[in-house]
Amino acid sequence: MESQFGIANVWIQGDFVTRAVAILLLGMSLASWIVILIKALDIIKFKKHARTAQDFWHSEDFAAGLTKLGTDPTNPFRHLALEGREATAHHRNTKAHLHDSLDVSDWVTRCLRNCIDEFTARLQSGLAILASVGSTAPFIGLFGTVWGIYHALLAIGTSGQSTIDKVAGPIGEALIMTALGLAVAIPAVLGYNALVRGNKSILNGLNSFAHDLHAYFVTGARVSTGEPGNVVPMKKGG
Fold first, then answer.
1. What is the pTM of this model?
2. Residue 145 pLDDT more than 50?
């Protein structure tokens, strides 16, 4: 054959629209992989923090527990513990605000929930990019294919040569755009699903930690994970 299939030929022989579609798909692919890599590294880091959070409850007091959580300011478990401590101290030491009409349990619950909601928003940032790429990339690639086939057929009709070797090359190269769309969409969809599962695991651990913190700040003890309703004493401190 005079023409060989390939992305290079698509770029060389394509017009402005074809090249714009190829650049758009390339940009979407880069954006997807950047989000996947960054969020995957974050999940690995947060899972390490979740494992260290289990040591928090084996501390002699709150200050020692904070030490075990480390000094990383992005550690959501450490931030949650500090937020709970500040909420408890603020509620007990001030009486001039409307929120002080709430009891300490409701106030600590509210503060811990707000902290978790803020972290959840940060954790899920970027997932919309993967969802958008996964849902639109195949159609963008299909548009490039339809556009390429249309112009290939026009060129073939103008030349008056409709033999198989003249038809297969241009149309085959146009079909590459569909393959590119799928190649961009599939990693985005798989990455989205994997990140959602990882985020869910981290949030489950954070919610459990917040439940124990609530019990500690309100009653001075942690709810036991062994027998429901029991609490495990922990010295006040920090």
1. 0.76
2. yes
